[in-house]
Design goal:
Helices cover 28% and strands 29% of the residues. Strands 3, 4, 5, 6, 7, 14 and 15 form a 7-stranded mixed sheet that branches. Strands 10-9-8-11-12-13 form a 6-stranded parallel sheet, with helices on both faces. It folds into 2 domains: 150 residues, Medium-chain alcohol dehydrogenases, catalytic domain (Quinone Oxidoreductase, Chain A, domain 1), CATH 3.90.180; 140 residues, NAD(P)-binding Rossmann-like Domain (Rossmann fold, 3-Layer(aba) Sandwich), CATH 3.40.50.720. The chain has 10 helices and 15 strands. The protein has 338 residues and is of the alpha/beta class. The structure holds NADPH dihydro-nicotinamide-adenine-dinucleotide phosphate. NADPH dihydro-nicotinamide-adenine-dinucleotide phosphate (NDP) binds next to α1, α2 and α3. NADPH dihydro-nicotinamide-adenine-dinucleotide phosphate binds next to α1, α2 and α3.
Length: 338
């Protein structure tokens, strides 16, 4: 403990009351190490990244974070500086994503985190700490979506695969990964100026959000997609289900459009399609570790550096605001210095 500083820098989100309204604001503060939980492993965070869920935590979404003040950040990568677990050594490079990090446990928007050993993935060979946070929860989730589609029989010869929220974290990495695996990918994006970026990631075709939304109310649509990765939910997800080819699958992982789903059974019983749920948060550690190893090896993504915008702690709030407005592009990587 003696080599460790007493205090460290962190983003703190505070809740204040304005009449009936709860307001949230953030600032960079000094915190004491003793304020962190008394957990197995203390980690000096080198990089974190900004995910949609962090934006929800920083803006008072009680489904994500119940109590404030709070330090968000569901992702962190860094070095172990103290360990009460024999499998994790001081000086080891590690990744922590999901579980309760950044939700109700002080998160990665800080120079230090303290977490249970069961949350910690050793950094796999082939990935740097920086690259692991360009991927972060978004990359892990994109890989889980792709894995689930493959496990449900999707192969490149079956036809086009759609990715929604294409310029966002999950979407952009899903495009790169599917394209690397030989799939013909159609990207759906709301950003008219994003075509060069999406082409570089490997999208063969690009469509607008309106094209997926304006489909009328028919119970089934023309067969179009062999598979899909959807981060939007709501009407867009349902229109995708209705346009899957016979036996096709959509991996559903997000709700940026809506958490609601108004559905009928017709696509399931007439076209044998699959709606596949994907969760990266409570994924068992062994599965999480296996996915990270794949991302470091056969599923490595060459465009990672292009996707990253590096920011500092005092630039986080602007990044969070842009994600809440649906204006994010690629991945915001928080550099906490070394
Ligand atoms: P980002 O903010 O990085 O990306 C979301 C993208 O969705 C935007 O960039 C935009 O892309 C598009 N979008 C935004 N608003 C709308 C809208 N109203 N209608 C349609 N499209 C919209 O978020 P992430 O990629 O980090 O996360 C995406 C979703 O996945 C979130 O809901 C998040 O909570 C969820 N998620 C779930 C996980 C799980 O374990 N299940 C893990 C990680 C994320 P464009 O402009 O190109 O259309």
């Amino acid at each position: 403990m003696s080599d460790l500083p007493e205090s460290f820098k962190a983003l703190r989100v505070e809740e204040t009351q304005d009449g009936d309204k709860l307001c949230y604001s953030s600032s960079v503060i000094e915190r004491h190490l003793s304020e962190l939980p008394d957990s197995d492993v203390l980690i000096k965070v080198h990089y974190s990244s900004v995910n949609y869920k962090d934006a929800l935590s920083a803006s008072g979404n009680k489904g994500v974070t119940r109590q404030y003040p709070h330090t968000p950040g569901i992702d962190a990568a860094g070095l172990v500086v103290r360990s009460q677990d024999s499998s994790l050594k001081v000086g080891q490079s590690v990744i922590v994503t999901g579980y309760d990090l950044g939700m109700n446990t002080s998160g990665g928007f800080a120079e230090y985190i303290a977490v249970p050993a069961q949350w910690v993935v050793p950094l796999p060979e082939g990935l740097s700490l920086f690259e692991s946070m360009v991927l972060g929860t978004a990359g892990l989730t994109a890989a889980l979506c792709v894995e689930k589609l493959l496990n449900n029989g999707l192969t490149p010869d079956q036809g086009d695969v759609l990715v929604t929220g294409a310029t966002g974290g999950v979407g952009s990495i899903a495009i790169a990964l599917l394209s690397k695996l030989g799939f013909s990918v159609t990207a759906c994006s709301g950003k008219a100026d994003s075509h060069p970026m999406l082409k570089r990631l490997g999208a063969g075709a690009i469509i607008t959000r309106e094209e997926l939304l304006d489909q009328g109310s028919r119970p089934m649509l023309k067969e179009r997609w062999a598979g899909a990765v959807d981060v939007v939910g709501g009407e867009m997800l349902w229109n995708i289900v209705k346009s899957l080819r016979y036996g096709g699958s959509v991996a559903c992982c997000g709700l940026v459009g809506s958490p609601k789903l108004e559905a009928t059974v017709f696509p399931f019983i007439l076209r044998s399609v699959n709606l596949l749920g994907v969760d990266s948060v409570l994924l068992p550690l062994a599965h999480k570790t296996a996915i990270w190893s794949k991302l470091a090896a056969q599923w490595n993504i060459e465009q990672l550096a292009d996707l990253a915008k590096i920011i500092a702690l005092d630039e986080l709030q602007a990044g969070i605001d842009s994600l809440l407005k649906g204006q994010g592009k690629g991945r915001l990587v928080l550099d906490l210095g070394r």
